[in-house]
Design brief:
655 residues; alpha+beta; Maltose phosphorylase, domain 3; 10-stranded mixed beta sheet; globular
Length: 655
């Protein structure tokens, strides 16, 4: 078995602090922390003897709820987590089968959830040390191995086969047996060959409305990015290596993401999927499950040694896509978020490819309940990626405020990251060793950072610097970085139909139409900026299928109440922006406030109103024309994650 480049500390050793702890506390007081009280699919799940959903929803919820409970050291949350784990373990069959179905139903039960519940049990063991867990996971996976001899993977299990490598690897490290690599091989050969798909790649454009496909499903694709690296790390225990090059699996993730962003990219560094790949239109959305599962893939790719670029990508999703898809109090969320999102009302006709007309509403369960259960893993697992075990030393992963208490070579060591990054351009690492101990501390710098200084000393620009020394007592290392705002061009996939393009029912392609399809967005470091639209929230309380939507977990339609139909202008064109300035608000938190007057960072730009119509409850993909409809005015862009309604992609007028 191949060693991990970095290992994660447990939620007992590492704790969030600063703005990240506040973010987790908001989540605990919102939907994720109360879902078992208000949602029958968790509170009355078949997993605990109830009569509601007995597949992925309860395990999905526990996957975020458990680390959140222990990171916050909240006794009530811990007590409730123990109740669910106890109930699941008590119901495990004598032959090891762990999911809530009869023996007669097993052949048609999708075993993707076996992978998921075993991952959850491993996570619970990391938090508690519960001695029942290794045996339960062993029996569950041994039963799965026997189950897959006469049967084969299908549906979600076939798409997500590699997720099982995570608990299987954990088990193999503790008690290696030959059936374990045999099961890994069976999973890979029975599952979807993602590498072959990307080698051929037939999905350069979206497949059109109603074309649902496991191969273009946004969550499957977000998950699969780690598939080759995970399997490679486990298959290295066999006599014949899977690849001739150690980097081959890492290359798969890099190439797959390059293709996805090229054909279906969004400014936030993710790819569209509403629910399947949806092209580059700014009003096609991406699923919240896809955001948090991509974050989890990037965390594993970082740990597996694929490079610091995955830490940058992790931060980009965490600081933009994740907070934007949730209300400020985290009691409601969207299924789909859009780059250009000026209204979230129930549509007369959906413009999403395979999702319904309510998918972009903020609510309890818009479209499907998978995101309701699953979105809670995002912040806790980000926190666990803050400080990593680097062999015998420590490494900064995601730059988030956190504290670590561990033992290195028998010496108690306290390590802390103090920072308001990404809203401030610095972080401080505080190390305190009780006795002299030599180890390496690896500092990370985002790839977009320039003019890096450590304790005032300028160092060459890179993504990482290791300091190997004997540490004793308290040491502080302050990292300061400079970032520049960039105006990034973004081409939407094709000339879109807007009213001014139509002539006798046929599309009229003009030079102006081509210009309208090159839009721009601002990025500074790992933050994306957007033009905020003032939001008016309208509450919707009702009951559907026996599930009540009642404040604070009701649904909301959100309407824009400020102008949004703008083009960027200034300087001599996109390459030269003389009007740009950065404003900072004194940071007091919460980090991703939706109070636009207190956004922690703002970019001042000059904008000019243009003809940009609404079509079916959304901004049309591109403006109808670039003729100015008024004088230029100064407008402040704010971080994407601080917006409910926004325009991220805007055209540019040379004026």
């Amino acid at each position: 078995m191949k060693n991990l480049r970095y290992r994660f500390f447990t939620a007992n050793e590492l704790k969030p602090s600063g703005w990240l702890r506040e973010q987790l506390r908001i989540q605990a007081e919102g939907l994720c922390g109360n879902l078992d009280k208000v949602w029958p699919d968790v509170g009355k799940s078949k997993w605990i003897g109830g009569d509601r959903e007995g597949w992925e929803r309860l395990p999905y919820w526990l996957d975020g709820f458990i680390p959140m409970a222990w990171l916050l050291d909240d006794e009530d949350l811990k007590r409730r987590a123990r109740f669910y784990i106890d109930a699941i373990l008590d119901r495990q069959e004598s032959d090891g089968w762990i999911c809530p179905c009869t023996k007669e139903e097993r052949h048609r039960y999708d075993v993707w959830v076996v992978f998921l519940i075993c991952k959850v049990l491993v996570l619970y063991h990391d938090c508690t040390g519960d001695e029942r867990i290794p045996g339960a996971v062993y029996r569950a996976l041994k039963c799965l191995s026997l189950h897959l001899e006469p049967a084969t993977l299908f549906a979600w299990g076939s798409a997500r086969w590699f997720e099982c490598i995570i608990p299987l690897r954990w088990l193999y490290e503790r008690n290696p047996e030959q059936w374990m690599p045999d099961l890994a091989l069976r999973l890979k050969t029975q599952g979807i060959d993602w590498k072959a798909l990307f080698r051929a790649w037939p999905y350069k454009q979206n497949q059109g409305p109603g074309r649902w496909n496991f191969l273009t499903h946004v969550v499957n694709l977000a998950m699969c990015l780690k598939s080759e690296a995970l399997y490679d790390s486990f298959a290295a225990s066999s006599e014949e290596p899977l690849h001739n090059s150690d980097s081959a699996a890492d290359d798969f993730a890099e190439e797959a993401l390059r293709i996805l962003l090229r054909d279906h990219g969004m400014p936030i560094g993710h790819f569209t999927g509403d629910e399947c790949l949806a092209g580059r239109s700014p009003i096609h959305g991406t699923e919240l499950c896809g955001i948090v599962e991509a974050m989890y893939s990037y965390e594993w790719l970082l740990a597996l040694g694929a490079g610091d670029v995955w830490a940058d990508r992790l931060e980009t999703l965490a600081f933009n896509g994740l907070p934007a898809a949730c209300s400020a109090d985290m009691w409601t969320h969207q299924y789909d978020q859009m780059s250009n999102q000026v209204e979230c009302s129930k549509l007369e006709k959906t413009h999403f490819l395979t999702n319904n007309e309510e998918s972009h509403l903020f609510g309890l369960e818009p479209n499907f309940g998978c995101c309701t259960a699953n979105f809670g893993q995002g912040w806790p697992k980000l926190a666990l990626s803050g400080i990593l075990r680097d062999g015998g030393g420590l490494a900064v992963g995601a730059i988030v405020p956190c504290t670590l208490d561990t033992v290195i070579q028998g010496v108690p060591v306290h390590c802390e990251i103090v920072s308001n990054y990404p809203f401030e351009d610095s972080y401080t690492v505080i190390l305190d060793a009780e006795n002299p101990v030599r180890f390496s501390l690896s500092l990370r710098f985002p790839a977009s950072a320039r003019n890096i200084r450590v304790n005032g000393e300028e160092i060459p620009v890179s993504t990482r610097r290791s300091i190997n020394k004997t540490w004793q007592g308290k040491t502080e290392l302050k990292v300061e970085m400079d970032f520049a705002a960039e105006l990034v061009p973004f081409s939407i996939e094709e000339p879109h139909l807007v009213p001014s393009d139509l002539q006798g029912g046929e599309l009229r392609i003009t030079e102006e139409a081509a210009l309208r399809n090159t839009l721009y967005f601002y990025r500074r470091g790992n933050l994306v900026f957007a033009l905020p639209v003032k939001a008016r929230w309208e509450k919707r309380e009702y009951t559907r299928n026996g599930v009540e939507r009642k404040f604070p977990y009701c649904d909301y339609e959100v309407y824009g109440e400020s102008p949004w139909n703008f083009a960027l202008s200034g300087g001599n064109g996109p390459a030269e922006r003389k009007d740009l300035s950065l404003c900072r608000e004194h940071f007091t938190g919460p980090a991703f406030t939706k109070d636009l007057s207190h956004a922690p960072l703002r970019l001042k730009v000059t904008c000019i109103p243009v003809d940009w119509p609404m079509l079916n409850g959304a901004a049309s993909p591109a403006p109808a024309g670039l003729r100015p409809l008024g004088a230029g005015e100064e407008i402040e862009l704010v971080p994407y994650g601080c917006t409910d309604l926004r325009m991220t992609l805007l055209p540019f007028i040379n004026q």
